[in-house]
Amino acid sequence: MSEIKGAVFDLDGVLVDTAKYHYLAWKRLAGELGFPFTERDNERLKGVSRMQSLDILLSIGGIRADEKQKQEWAEKKNIWYVDYLNTLDENALLPGTTEYLRRLKQAGIGTALGSASKNAPFIINKLTIAPYFDAVVDGNCVSKAKPDPEIFIKCAEALALPTGGCAVFEDSEAGIAAAKIGGMFAVGIGTREKLPHADRWAKNLQELCDENFLL
Q1: Structural domain span for residue 200
Q2: Cis peptide before 196 (omega within 30 of 0)
Q3: What is the CB neighbour count within 10 angstroms for residue 190?
Q4: CA torsion sign, 11 to 17 to 19 to 22?
Q5: Residue 134, exposed/middle/buried by CB under 10 A (0-12, 13-18, 19+)?
Q6: Is residue 173 part of a domain?
Q7: How many Å apart are CA 42 and CA 32, to the nearest integer?
Q8: pLDDT tier at 18 (50, 70, 90 boundaries)?
Q9: C-beta atoms surrounding 58 within 10 Å
Q10: How does pLDDT run across 155-211, given as a tens digit for each residue?
Q11: Are 106 and 202 in the same domain?
Q12: Measured by CB atoms within 10 angstroms of the end CB, which terminus of the chain is less buried, N or C?
């Protein structure tokens, strides 16, 4: 895989575990709106933008609203989410995260973060992994959600690499699809059964460290 010169990472579920905070905030909003929101429902929001996540949540509750109301609810959810994030510490880093990023840096492989979360810069700074990234493309930089490859294409551009020269590390079906549509090598953080369209699979980045898999 000598042609691969760049590594692009999703955030939640790949590098850090903040999904539970998203879930708690969405569940709290659903509760205020008067309907239950389960962990299974939450699976539908993985890799999806905040406003699209809200649309899915409202469809679950059978609620219709205008754009102004949606913006207010989305902002309320984000305030709760950021409050939860303030409790983050290095325990939120998934196994192998820091070590794998360090090895990529040492190997001269460009690294980019491609996350739909508008809070991504805050999270990587709080967890002290920001210095490992050469580029960050978050929800403030894109208009299309995965499986559209926009976010990963912008990551490749930020690394000054062709899309075929990048590998994407993702834990969602939508993210794997976005990587493949963009012409990138897709590493699924999860099982082959869960992410059948990935090119390679690993339980977490620690497993890739153990296998000395550096692209």
Answers
A1: 6-16+93-211
A2: no
A3: 19
A4: negative
A5: middle
A6: yes
A7: 16
A8: confident
A9: 19
A10: 999 999 999 999 999 999 999 999 999 999 999 999 999 999 999 999 999 999 999
A11: yes
A12: N
